[in-house]
Specification:
The N and C termini lie far apart (95 Å). α3 runs antiparallel to α4 (63-121). The protein contains 4 helices and no strands. It has helices at residues 3-7, 13-17, 19-53, 63-121. The mean pLDDT is 84. It is 65% helix and 0% strand. The radius of gyration is 39 Å and the shape is elongated. With 159 residues, the protein is an all-alpha fold.
Length: 159
C-alpha cells in the first residue's frame, strides 16, 4: 500500500478505534434491527392469519394449517436469528470495552510481575530477630504481661 491509500478515509475506522464509538454504533444498529423485528413480528402474525384462513375446496379443517406451517416456521426462524443477532451486538460491544480495559491493565500487570521477579532474584536480607532477655536478668519495666509470682511483686500491690 502506498501513502495515498493510508490517507483515504476508511469507513468505520474511527468507530473501530474507540470502544465508546463502537458501543454507540452497535446500539444504533441494534435499534434499527429491533424496529425491523417489530415489523417482522407483525408480518408473521398477519401471514399466519391469512394462510390459515385460505381453504381450498375439499380441505379438511387442518389442511390449511398444515400448508401454513412451513411458512410460519421460516418466519419464526428469521425472528429467532434476528434476536440472536441483537444479543450478539450487545455482547460484542461489551467484549470491545473489555478488550481496551485488558490492554490498559496489561502494562500494570507486566510491571508488577517484573517487580516480583526482581524480588525473587534479589531477596532482601532478613533482619535478625531481637535477642530474648537472659534468664537471670530482670526487666526494667515489668508489666502485666511479664510473668511474676505473688512473692515477687516488687513495688506493686496485690489485689
Amino acid at each position: 500500500m502506498n501513502s495515498n491509500d493510508d490517507q483515504k478515509h476508511v469507513p468505520l475506522r474511527d468507530v473501530a478505534q474507540s470502544p465508546e464509538a463502537t458501543a454507540r454504533y452497535l446500539a444504533e444498529v441494534q435499534r434499527v434491527l429491533l424496529d425491523i423485528g417489530k415489523n417482522l413480528e407483525i408480518l408473521a402474525i398477519e401471514t399466519r392469519v391469512h394462510l390459515r384462513k385460505t381453504h381450498v375446496e375439499g380441505d379438511r379443517w387442518y389442511h390449511a394449517r398444515l400448508r401454513a406451517m412451513p411458512v410460519e416456521k421460516a418466519l419464526g426462524n428469521v425472528l429467532k436469528n434476528l434476536n440472536n443477532l441483537t444479543e450478539g451486538l450487545e455482547k460484542s460491544a461489551y467484549k470491545r470495552r473489555s478488550h481496551d480495559e485488558a490492554v490498559v491493565n496489561t502494562a500494570k500487570d507486566r510491571k508488577e510481575k517484573e517487580l516480583e521477579r526482581q524480588r525473587k532474584k534479589n531477596p532482601q536480607q532478613l533482619q535478625a530477630a531481637p535477642t530474648p532477655p537472659q534468664q537471670g536478668a530482670r526487666r526494667q519495666n515489668p508489666g502485666y504481661s511479664a510473668p511474676t509470682s505473688i512473692y515477687d511483686l516488687g513495688n506493686r500491690e496485690s489485689a
